[in-house]
Amino acid sequence: MTKYRILIFLITVFLFSTCTGPGGVRQIKLGHGLGVTHPVHEAMVFMAKLVDEKSKGQMQIRIYPNQQLGTERELVELLQIGSLGMTKVSSATLESFAPKIQVLSMPYLFRDDEHRDKVLKGEIGKQLLSESEEFWLKGLVYYDAGKRSFYTKTKSVESPEDLKGLKVRTLESNMAINMIKSFGSSPTPVSYGELYTALQQGIVDGAENNPPSLYTSRHYEVCKFYSINEHTAVPDVVIVSTKVWNKLDDQEKQWIQEAADESAVYQYKLWAESVEESLREMEKAGVIITYPDQTPFREAVESLYETIKLTQPEMYEMVERIRRVE
Gene Ontology terms, cellular component aspect (predicted)? Predict the structure, then answer.
């Protein structure tokens, strides 16, 4: 048995042995990879508080941050076997389990924030949340993960030309990998928890993420150039194991769904505040923040859309549906 399998086994035993607390209180474990100062973590703490209040203490969500229970992908796999109740993932991570959701990783897909919100909160968003259920993963709600931009160690990225030859950390997503290639750089998947060290050691030359994640991860201590080209707006998704969900009664499901929905409203507010604070504090720390013209970046990824149109017509049809949302 490999170390990984032993770890999964031990976690499984631990989680199953503590699924019911004192007095018959229903306890659901939620693991994620972010730090406790991240606005997404704060929103999930708020969600747990709401569940406790709505259930009058009969249901609790226990949160394990900082990859205590595994990486993002490992947590998803634990959900699939029913050993973990809930997690937060990037929708890009869900691509391996629900391929249709990769449309949300398309670069420059949304016209603006209003367009994005209408898509995610409307019929298309609900449809994509349900896509992973056949893989034992139920989407509850989207969290704002902002817009992703490049940060690097040695120079500002003012055009795709500046990315050529660089090793850029990317999400474990085919769409994200192909996007990085279209900019002329070498995509290098690295676990988020290992990225700080990878940047320090030169395993990668840079990465791409939103302002709060760059700030709370302290990656700005290594990368002093942040070029806000906003190439993607990949949302986070709060998901629950269907093997856990299906054991809940209707009232328990309602408590969780209502708490998740309300926490998303709170998270959007926290996120907006965090973006402003993160940019302000990073500037104080000496990070050079620029806002390059997006035009050459948009032109560089047009080939991705042409490829999708030819090779994945169903995906391109979803792109067209999203573009038609007013």
Answer: outer membrane-bounded periplasmic space
